[in-house]
Amino acid sequence: MEAKTLLQEHIAKTASLTQEEFDYFFSHFKPLSFKKGQTIISEGDKVDCEYFVVSGCLKAFFINDEIKMYILQFAMPTWWTSDYNALYNQTPAQINVDCITDAEVLCLSSSDREKLCAEFHQIEHFFRWRTNKGYIASQKRLLSFMNNNVKTRYEELLALYPQLYNLVPKHLIAAYLGVSRETLSRLHNS
Amino acid sequence: MEAKTLLQEHIAKTASLTQEEFDYFFSHFKPLSFKKGQTIISEGDKVDCEYFVVSGCLKAFFINDEIKMYILQFAMPTWWTSDYNALYNQTPAQINVDCITDAEVLCLSSSDREKLCAEFHQIEHFFRWRTNKGYIASQKRLLSFMNNNVKTRYEELLALYPQLYNLVPKHLIAAYLGVSRETLSRLHNS
DNA sequence: AAAAGATTGTGATCTACATCACGTAACCCA
DNA sequence: TGGGTTACGTGATGTAGATCACAATCTTTT
């Protein structure tokens, strides 16, 4: 699907904009294409934008001790991603974002987002709900982390996003679950 | 500090309301007082409200297998709490909220919040930012969970909220850290 | 098509933390 | 003021998952 239509249908679920308003909104987004493996945000970068995924799959991750990787989010079409802590607090990125597959994204700068939120009540409404859903999902994941063992978390993840099983290498799924790739591999037999 | 002043100063940090607008906003809140140990939300309840803490300390927690407790949030003055998943998706509460100390709260119904957000752009702005901060904090905690051992998480928590050490029994701090009370106790000696 | 790198599986061993068990001290509240 | 509940410490033992090591594919690049 075309980027503009995808975004429009996505927004329409929570906010009512006229076609004219949406066209204006859309004009602030910059379309970007990336190849598999390309980096969008690196640790230490100044972060100015957030990204709406049109096609492909990104990962937002943290590297500890230059060795261990922890994946905060897989970002699929219609998902938003960035290092929101860095973006809102104007601090250097602690999170990396790169492309698991070739990907197309729409890039929106933080200043444009704030401008658009101030100009259109409905746009502010949309972003409140988007963040709200992210917050609820994040709380659920935290609870699952405290409450469930690796096997249960793995099954939950696959039930929620079956396409990940074939799209994403297993060691990345392990990094999302916060477990070693060896342990994840052994789960298949138990 | 008086409940109304506390809320007004809290809101003023992110939204500009005239005194008249704030008075109208405030008129939708219901002040409630609770004693130490009293329950505000029980698992299975229909959840209609969110709560702004004026004084005291609440905990939002999840009980697994009728045995293990996991604390999602300690809620102190100027913090907001509820079972947001239940509140937004109109599902029965999975989270409990009760009082660690005597507490005063201001209660806002979800329908009033949505009404106020629709009526005043600045109020929608405020709630977007509040949720945004919650989302960022939740992501940070998730990262710390994956990345750090118990001792580091304990030190982080005490650095962020030193008052918790004396205010809250250790087994509740253990339940927040997702660790057994015995292990937490042993950390003091190591 | 060959070489190099990435991905996955699996055994052996190690470790952080859980669980069980028991003892002591502090705090309610009738 | 005394008896019961709650809080907290600490030893002994169990276990999920980490780490190390190596081998077998599968993918990408030249």
Automatic annotation (TrEMBL), chains A, B:
GO molecular-function terms, A-Z: kinase activity
Record domain Cyclic nucleotide-binding: where: 13-116
Annotated SUPFAM superfamilies: cAMP-binding domain-like
Superkingdom: Bacteria
Signal sequence interval, chain numbering: none
One Pfam family hit: cNMP_binding
Record key words, sorted: Kinase, Transferase
Name of the featured protein: cAMP-binding domain of CRP or a regulatory subunit of cAMP-dependent protein kinases
